Amino acid sequence: MNYKLIALDVDGTLLHDNHELSEENKNSIKAAASRGAEFVLCTGRGPVNTIPLMEKMGLGGYVITHNGAVTVDIKTQEVIDQFPMDAEGLQPYVDYCREHGIHFDVNTAFGLYVDKADQMSTKVRGMYDEVFLEPLNLPHWSELSEPVVKFSAFGDLDTMNQLEKEWNTWNSPFYMVRSGDFFLDLMHKDASKGEALKRLAASRGIEREHVLAMGNYFNDITMLTFAGKGIAMDNSPIDVKAAADEVTLSNNENGVHHALEKFVIGVK
């Protein structure tokens, strides 16, 4: 199959656990791009720390960010598609996190906001430093200049498991998804990586069967099942592997490189 659009998750898929891009992955992506494949990073990250990765690989085009809530043109940094949330509808979740001491952040397309940014713990500060983000103080909803597109809660595994169980009992107007063991995200009910990828492919005139996607976590399932070929990393939970058509090596073993060699570069 000639894959024209290749969607890659970032953390846990494209990057090693140390958040670095390997030469093997980078070179295979360049080789596939030289054969005409168009790449899109499809990630829970925002554009601010996703676009530099595309530029590092010498790629143009688009990035699908915030778990599908925002799609951005790399060259112009224009938001071409997004799913705005009802920000004030998030207040019960904000109140819950504050009451229970759970860290959270509020995301617009290009902005990241937290409570009392100058009082974050060393652990939380380190999380943002690892992915090159600088949070700002959360203002009143009416003072935000861009629409809110994602709300994320952050904590240890037990805390996030309990939080997910609790919030699943709420009659929520939002789409809730785990984007990692330590993250629980809320977005517009129609937002997902799969929906954003579907809309981008349609805008590019690319049929579903010519789309290949790779990911490793629950927030990747919608894009793995939309794509003509969905590939899970070996470091994926079993439910993610079950949703995929294929399983490649882990992110630390350059699974992206091996999958591209098998399904794109090595195909005559």
Task: Name the descriptors.
268 residues, alpha/beta, Rossmann fold, Hypothetical Protein, Haloacid Dehalogenase-like Hydrolase, Chain: A, domain 2, 2 domains, 9 helices
Can you identify the CATH superfamily of the largest domain?
HAD superfamily/HAD-like
The percentage of residues in β strands lies in 15-25%
CATH fold name of the largest domain: Rossmann fold
Strand order of the largest sheet: 5-4-3-2-1-12-13-14
User: What's the overall geometry?
Assistant: globular
β-strand number: 14
Question: How would you describe this protein?
Answer:
The structure is a single chain. The chain has 268 residues and is α/β, with parallel strands linked by helices. The chain has 2 domains: 5-82 and 191-265, HAD superfamily/HAD-like (Rossmann fold, 3-Layer(aba) Sandwich), CATH 3.40.50.1000; 87-188, Hypothetical Protein, Haloacid Dehalogenase-like Hydrolase, Chain: A, domain 2, CATH 3.30.1240.10. It contains 9 helices and 14 strands. The strands form 2 sheets. The chain has an 8-stranded mixed sheet with strand order 5-4-3-2-1-12-13-14. It has a 6-stranded mixed sheet with strand order 8-7-6-9-11-10, covered by helices on one side. α1 packs parallel to α9.
